[in-house]
Design a protein that fits this description.
Keywords: ATP-binding, Nucleotide-binding, Phosphoprotein, Transcription, Transcription regulation. The chain is an alpha/beta fold and 449 residues long. 51% of the residues lie in helices and 13% in strands. The strands form 4 sheets. A 5-stranded parallel sheet has the order 2-1-3-4-5, with helices on both faces. Helix 13 packs across helix 15. The radius of gyration is 29 Å and the shape is globular.
Length: 449
């Protein structure tokens, strides 16, 4: 159902449109002249306006211009008893959705109103998604470390320069990448991300460059890669330090020449993409070890941005904790909750090896397990101690050494998985294990998410 505003000086037209559109489950508001219509526009905030082009006192095209400059987001369908091609073209150029001639064909009216309402709904849904995405990717904090980082973002974002974001795992590198995109001239384009550590080496080229049908076993159809998808937007290459040398060479070519071929293809595809890369690794050490290309490093590292650890921005912990709590409750349709000041002090006193990701994990656990609208320090401490006691019991209970080793290994692996939000490639990397071995270990130890 949509809200429809009819602006027409003919009462019988208003009445007829009211009846047929109400039968379509729309809410209809009517006005007999332009001034009444503009007042109704601001009061009712309609989704669709049916506007007569010939109104007493004021021209319908003039009213159309005022509607478009009013700030009210709606579609406008012009109607006229003396329509001309010139008038229709002018109306469309001024932003009208469609132009209908009297006598009105009611089937055509209903169809156009439905399509206009759907267009408005799609726009609303897209805006809602953008707002949710913007909220999810918001950089929270007012401390000096964050302020310096945001100043860097503001300087580099409007430029075409490539950015290399460095920082520990869990510090928020993806948030920085998204902020750069949102503040850039490419903000209306796509923001495409790929975690280079999460893609098996034999599939990374297909993910980045796409593939042609039949290019390898399982390639049953043509697939566009991330570079193609990110055309006229931003491509975020997360954990670039985990990319193999062969793929690094091909990425370097795209940076230098702006072109590539899909896997199994011969057609050269040109793209216009801004690359933002991130890593927790020491790329200069990798260059010395010949595991990362020096020329690619300097191409990516035009503007370096380092993301501070949570230990460097402890003053932001209260704001971060409350933000994560509100976000989790909103996304999971839970009643609003907040932290007592003592609980926030408790969070500030902790150390976080997993940085912001670990803090977020604790906050979400509190949101789930605490029923009170205000989470007290005692409730929070109890949640933390439950986990600590479970870990300490490994050392206070007597049992065979092999069994104790297994339990210690299970707790350690599970803790690392939780700190990394069950990101298998990242956890395997930190544990210095092959991903397949980590999967096997999870199954062997009976670890469940």
């Amino acid at each position: 159902m949509a809200k429809i505003l009819v602006i027409d000086d003919e009462e019988n037209i208003r009445k007829t449109l009211d009846e047929i559109l109400s039968d379509e489950a729309h809410e209809v508001v009517s006005a007999g002249d332009g001034n009444q219509g503009l007042r109704a526009l601001k009061e009712e905030l309609p989704d669709v306006v049916l506007l007569d082009i010939q109104l007493p006192g004021r021209d319908g095209l003039e009213i159309l211009q005022e509607i478009k400059s009013s700030g009210v987001d709606c579609e406008v369908i012009m109607i006229s008893g003396h329509g001309t091609i010139e008038a229709a073209i002018k109306a469309i150029r001024l932003g009208a959705y469609h132009f209908l001639q009297k006598p009105l064909a009611m089937v055509e009216v209903k169809q156009n109103v439905r399509h206009a309402a759907e267009a408005k709904l799609q726009r609303d849904e897209l805006q809602s998604l953008k707002e949710k995405e913007g909220n999810r990717y918001r950089i929270v904090g007012t401390g000096s470390a964050v302020e310096r980082m945001e100043q860097q973002i503001a300087k580099v974002a409007p430029t075409p320069g490539r950015v290399l974001i460095t920082g520990q795992s869990g510090s928020g590198k993806e948030l920085v990448a998204y902020a750069i995109h949102r503040q850039s001239q490419r903000a209306s384009g796509p923001f495409v991300k790929i975690n280079c550590a999460a893609i098996p080496q034999n599939l990374i080229e297909s993910e980045l460059f796409g593939h042609e049908r039949g290019s390898f076993t399982g390639a049953v159809s043509l697939k566009k890669g991330k570079f193609e998808t990110a055309h006229l937007g931003t491509l975020f290459l997360d954990e670039i330090g985990d990319m193999d040398l062969n793929t690094q060479t091909k990425v370097l070519r795209v940076i230098q020449e702006g072109e590539f071929e899909r896997v199994g293809g011969i057609k050269t595809i040109k793209v216009d993409v801004r690359i933002v890369a991130a890593t927790h690794r020491d790329l200069e050490a990798m260059i010395a070890a010949r595991t990362f290309r020096e020329d690619l490093y300097y191409r990516l590292n035009v503007v370096p941005i380092r993301v501070p650890t949570l230990a460097e921005r402890t003053e932001d912990i209260p704001a971060l904790a409350q933000y994560f709590l509100e976000l989790y409750c909103a996304e999971n349709s839970m009643a609003k909750k907040s932290f007592a000041s003592e609980a926030l002090s408790l969070l500030c006193a902790r150390t976080y090896k997993g940085n912001i990701r670990e803090l977020k994990n604790i906050v979400e656990r509190a949101a789930i397990l605490t029923e009170a609208p205000v989470i007290s320090a005692a409730a929070l401490q109890a949640l933390i101690e439950i986990k600590q006691e479970a870990n300490m019991s490994l050392f206070t209970r007597t049992r065979p050494l092999n069994q104790a080793k297994d339990e210690l290994e299970r707790v350690y692996v599970q803790t690392q998985l939780e700190l990394n939000e069950w990101n298998i490639p990242r956890t395997a990397d930190l544990l210095d294990m092959q991903r397949t071995n980590l999967h096997r270990k999870i199954k062997q130890l009976g670890i469940e998410r």
